[in-house]
Each structure stands twice: as C-alpha cells, then as structure tokens.
Amino acid sequence: MSRELVKYLSGFATENRLKRFEEVLLHRTRHLAVVLEDIYQPHNAAAVLRSCDCFGVQDVHVIENQNKFEANPDVELGSAKWITLHRHNQKENNTADCIALLKKNGYKIVVTSPHKNDCSIEELDITHKSALFFGTEMRGVTPVAFEQADAFVKIPMVGFTESLNISVSAAVTLYALVSRLKSSSVNWHLSDQEGMEIRLQWLKNSVPKAELLKKEFLAREM
Fold first, then answer.
1. Is residue 40 located within the same domain as residue 73?
2. Domain limits for position 173
3. Are residues 128 and 50 in the same domain?
C-alpha cells in the first residue's frame, strides 16, 4: 500500500522535487541515529536537526524528561520535515525506554562524553549500528545513559577549553563518522522499504493537502 500511495502522491509533486528526493535518499542512512537527552536551548536543538539533515542521518530521538524539546525555526530552516523525529515523553524518566527501543532495533548505545574507557571519533567501531547520545548543555547525559552505554566516544581537543557546544559537538561527530562510513565497506544505505517509507514521509510534508489526498486515495482503494 505504501508504494501505491507514494506513486499517487508523487503525481502532485514537481519533477524537480521528486528528482531531489532520489538524490538525497542516496546519501541517507539509518546506520547512525542521534539521541538528544533533555536539550533545553532551542537554537542548539535546531542546529543538531539541521546537521543531521545535512550529513544524511535520518533518525533523531528526543528524550524529554524535564525539558520540552523546542527547535528554533530560524536555525533549523525546515530541516525537521526531512528527518524522522522520535519523541520519548510519556514518563517522568524516558531514557531507559528509549535505550531499550534502540537496542531492540539493533543499535549500540554510544555516549558522547569524556570517560575513562572512551575512544576518539576516529577509533569508534562503525561496523555496528550506533545511536549517538548527547546530553543537556549543563550536565551531559544522565546516569541511566552512562550505565547502559555500550561505548563512549570523545572529540580530541588540544586547547584550554574542555568541551564544545553541543550543536558543534554533534556536527563534528556526525561529519567524522559519516565520512568514515562512506569510505568503508559497511552497508550503511537504506533498504528499499526504508527508502519507500521516507519518500512517503517527505511527500506528506511537502505536497499541499497531502492528508486529504491520502484519504481520497484510501477511499478509492477500499
């Protein structure tokens, strides 16, 4: 049904838009995912979404324990509609549930933080699917994330300052890991089914009155 719906909605999109979809999909991956835990500064949240879109990372998981996730639209520049945003906000502490879901889907939990057992972004094992955890601007990730992490990664720095802004940290990390993936033998590309699901998401977000068109299509198929 998804394939038929994609074909139907594609009839309401321009050829240039459909061509652009295919160009971008060639560089999209679900081998990496980004997890933002309790990010509270809208400009940081928006900048991370923008980086994910720019570097081809499709999935962003947002954990809202104490802080509601809000992205500054002047910074994210519409990038939110091109990525897949998963919000975890049903409980007081949603971190454990998010981690359980990611592990169920085959992801290794990688916490981005200086740690005694950490490795650099150039040394991280990229053969496994990895979910990259970024914590709050002031405190970093929660103890729950630390306890359940499979690996710790850091960005090598040689200056007096001990850390980078979270949005810069995410951008540097994604650039390094995506670059390594593309020069490796790892199969980081989307499956045919994943590509179809994302095409459908993009069409729904860009075709005028897409929900109404979808209802009309489903009514015809019944």
1. yes
2. 29-188
3. yes
**d(Cα 110, Cα 148) in Å, to the nearest integer?**
9
Q: Which DSSP helix (H) or strand (E) runs through 2?
A: helix 2-10
Cα–Cα distance, 148 to 145 (Å, whole number): 5
- When pLDDT is averaged across residues 21-29 and rounded to a whole number, the result is 97
Which residue is listed with tokens 């592990």?
Answer: 103
Choose among 5, 14, 23: nearest CA to 82: 23
The answer to whether residues 179 and 217 belong to one domain is: no
Taking the CA atoms of 86, 92, 93 and 99 in sequence, report the sign of the dihedral they define: negative
In 3D, which of 196, 191, 208, 204 has the Cα closest to residue 81?
204
Q: 159 with 66, same domain?
A: yes
Rounded to whole angstroms, how far apart are CA atoms 34 and 110? 10
- Of 111-125, 143-157, 168-182, least confident by mean pLDDT is 111-125
CA dist., res. 58 & res. 102, Å (int): 14
pLDDT digits (tens, 9 = 90+) for 170-214: 999 999 999 999 999 999 999 999 999 999 999 999 999 999 998
CA distance 195 to 96: 29
> Residue 74: which residues within 8 A CB-CB, separation 6 or more?
46
DSSP code, position 128: S
Same domain membership, residue 14 and residue 66:
no
- Residues in CB range of 31: below 8 A, 6 or more apart: 126, 129, 130, 181, 186, 187, 188
